[in-house]
Amino acid sequence: MPNDASATHSPDRPVAVITSHGQPSDPAPQEAALAAVAAAVAPLLPDWQVKSATLSTPGLLEETVEAGAVVYPFFMANGWFTANVLPKRLSDVACTITPPFGLDPDLPALACEALREACDSRGWTLEQTRVLLAAHGSARGPKAAEAAEAFADLMRATVPGIDLRTGYVEEDPRIADTARDIEQAQPTQNSLCLPFFAQAGEHVRDDIPEALEEAAYTGDTLPVLGALPAVPALIAKAICRAKTG
Question: Of 45, 177, 186, 220, which one has the greatest count of Cβ atoms within 10 A?
Fold first, then answer.
């Protein structure tokens, strides 16, 4: 059954479907996590039916998306899945696919604010804190890294002078290498790792901590960008923008 976060159903209410990759080997946990995102967005779109479906549960996306729906990719880049797999899966449905979460123009400012709040809570200043933006990267093509690098540039423009470096799970520079460089550059300086991910899947739970441990990284790791408190409002705004567009 589709995950519907709306309280009531009406054929007159537009449909928004939030989608993500999910976990093919064990779809249920990520399906539930995405449903929680939809549930947080639904109160902000009371005139909509807000649903969710990952790409990993066979047939669920096609069952959930109907003609006229707005599909919101909870992805960080316009990479293989958003640019190729998702449109192909929905080629028989007349729907609107928004730009992915990671390319939202309002997200870099939210990330900088989250970093500043994290620093304030520790008695640090953001300008004197090294930041490791830990991203996925991809062996399939350059889009994932390009999105992370563009995001990093926007954050640097938002906070001039910030020492922000990128590291990747699947391509160079690897997260462990960047973390090691940060530690060696000035071991006593404060540091935060910000995961450039929409959801806390296996890469965030396993790969990033393992890479940081390998590098003997002494900084703190923050929640993923998709967990920021302002994200539901950001998603709701993007869905409305696509509908009125």
Answer: 45
